[in-house]
Amino acid sequence: MNGFWAILGRDLALARAESGGALLAVQFFALGILLFPLGLGPEPGMLSRLGGGLLAVMALLATLLALDRLFQQDHEDGTLDLLLTSPAPLWSIVLGKAVAHWLITGAPMLLAAPLLGVLLQMSWPAIGGLVVALALGTPTLSLVGAVGAALTIGTRRGGVLLALLVLPLYIPVLIFMSGTVTAAETGLAFGGHVSILGAIMLLSLVLTPWAAAVALRQVGD
Amino acid sequence: MVSDCGFSYSFQARGLAGARGERWLFDGLDLTLGPGEVLVVTGPNGTGKTTLLRILAGLLPAAEGSVGWEPQPEDGRVALHYLGHQNSVKGALTVAQNLAFWQRLAGAGDAAATAAAQAAFALDDLVDLPARVLSAGQQRRLALARLVAIPAPLWLLDEPTTALDAGSVKAFADAVAAHRDRGGMAILATHQDLGFEPTYRLDMGASA
Asked: Do A87 and B101 touch (CB under 8 A)?
């Protein structure tokens, strides 16, 4: 697990050193949410009804923000060669990157979500459901995003390509995240949605580090 | 500990061919390096020096042929260092943090090795500076310090002395000499005279 801890520690240190850059995603997430009351009008019932879906969609988009730099920076400064020739297994390096990405983007969003939920006048059960949904959904977004980031290394306008590649794969997570919120709000059992979100996360945890490692091996030059 | 015991590996390539896209750069290349041996690869631009080094490092697939070790290095041990045109240095991290990250990633090297690496490339006064404020030559020295900070039997170096002043080129030559004394091997692509006599020379221009 040398590779995992080394990369995790370094990416967090980099995020801290490049202060501001680290919290960009959560700032985008919050600002995006704040635009909806302005655009849709302050009608209370509508905002609380739409709130869960809006927050889920914004979480997807905010996740994308930092993704294109995930491997691109290491590719540009030659660190990727170092990672590829190091004795640490490549999957552990990818996993370290994905966890660091989640701690920098997913975790702050998770903390900001309840506040934004209140702002959108969502009910307390709905906010509870939202937090559970984001806790299980956002790690999947980081993990699946790592595969997309690995595949788009070295391509020009990789950020746009990455979004086109990854957003369709995010659809199941989106559906079950907003499903959880809706069910929680209407007082229905949302255990099923939560279980599926958890299952998707575990599946991604197993498959995506391996898939991204295969993609990284193809980079070569 | 590690720095006291030498290496006794040999490294070989058989019938190696390299291509970039559709362009065939070299083929039928055989080489064998034993403990303490150094190969210097020369040749005009575009003759495949970098491609050869990247194939030997396992970063590019060979169009033909194979690369092998005798004996095979253990799993999880650093078998080789590849240093290309880029320094793999993170500008936002300090010199010390960069070195520490490389050692953690490799799971090798200790405080003594770090001290030796900093001393070898005159980095002692720079350790607490963020790498982005270093000059090109200083960044290159930091990249070269990795070779000393983490013991590995084989060094694959692409133009290692780019941007270095005369004193630093001498420091690099000393590091290579110490590496050879311990039974280490090195393959270097360079245009400069490095001030030491390699075991073998390979002129890519002549073989093309």
From this structure: no
Domain interval for residue B155:
10-207
> Given an 8 Å threshold on Cβ–Cβ distance, is B57 in contact with A81?
yes
Q: B1 in a domain, yes or no? A: no
- The interface pTM score, or ipTM, of the predicted complex is 0.88
The helix (run of H) or strand (run of E) holding residue A31 is: helix A24-40
CB of A10 less than 8 A from some CB of B: yes
Give the total number of structural domains in chain B.
1
Q: What is the pLDDT of residues B26-81, one digit of tens each?
A: 888 899 999 999 999 998 888 889 999 999 999 988 888 999 898 888 877 888 99
- Return the structure tokens found at A55: 């927050």
The dihedrals phi and psi of B17, each to the nearest 5 degrees, come to -130, 140
Cα B162 from Cα B190, distance rounded (Å): 9
Contacts of B141 (CB under 8 A, 6+ apart): B121, B122, B123, B164, B168, B171
Q: pTM for the whole thing?
A: 0.90
DSSP A158: H
What is the distance between the alpha carbons of residues B205 and B208, in angstroms, rounded to a whole number?
A: 5
